[in-house]
């Protein structure tokens, strides 16, 4: 049996997070958007807000699928709507109507309207999967090549912050009341 200190997410935090994720069951997405987080230029996050005011911020890889079809990938921001690779330098370029991520966020937002969460779980590696009606899934997962925060789950004043640093992934629980997360 692994020592709790060696686990990527402590048993206590994983239990608390899974309890919070179970509260998503029956909820729908009230907002899906790309945004700058905490007033910083980098990193940018995809913000998913639910009807119960739970927010999830993904700064790393994520994808949204339905059955066997990819609807959105966080890598879409690097492409135009004509699937031509474009260097992104500013948030304005991502929010431009010619940006593939912006287009896919609009399309997925319409698709998720009134779709309720039927399952939400966190793996021991910190990968998050949220399943909606009609077999729509949001998956957020770690990229071990990048250091820093990759996922944040906010419920009320509880912030569960997931970050990867020098080959180690960790989750810490913070207590915040930050205007930037609203």
Proportion in helices: 10-25%
Strand order of the largest sheet: 1-2-3-9-10-11
Provide the residue-averaged pLDDT: 78
Number of helices: 3
β content, as a range? 35-45%
| Overall geometry | globular
Amino- and carboxy-terminal Cα gap = 40 Å
Unreliable stretches? 1-7, 177-182
The succession of helices and strands, N to C, reads HEEEEEHHEEEEEE
Report the oligomer.
single chain
Helix and strand content put the structural class at alpha+beta
Radius of gyration: 16 Å
Number of strands: 11
Q: Describe the biggest sheet? A: 6 strands, antiparallel
Quick structural overview:
16% of the residues lie in helices and 39% in strands.
Give a topology summary.
Layout: H1 11-22, E1 29-36, E2 44-50, E3 55-58, E4 61-66, E5 69-73, H2 91-95, H3 100-112, E6 117-122, E7 128-132, E8 136-141, E9 148-155, E10 158-165, E11 168-175
Antiparallel strand pairs: 1-2, 2-3, 3-9, 4-5, 4-8, 6-7, 7-8, 9-10, 10-11
Please give a structural write-up.
- The protein has 182 residues and is of the alpha+beta class.
- It is built from 3 helices and 11 strands.
- The protein has helices at 11-22, 91-95, 100-112, and strands at 29-36, 44-50, 55-58, 61-66, 69-73, 117-122, 128-132, 136-141, 148-155, 158-165, 168-175.
- The strands form 2 sheets. Strands 1-2-3-9-10-11 form a 6-stranded antiparallel sheet. A 5-stranded antiparallel sheet has the order 5-4-8-7-6.
- The termini are far apart.
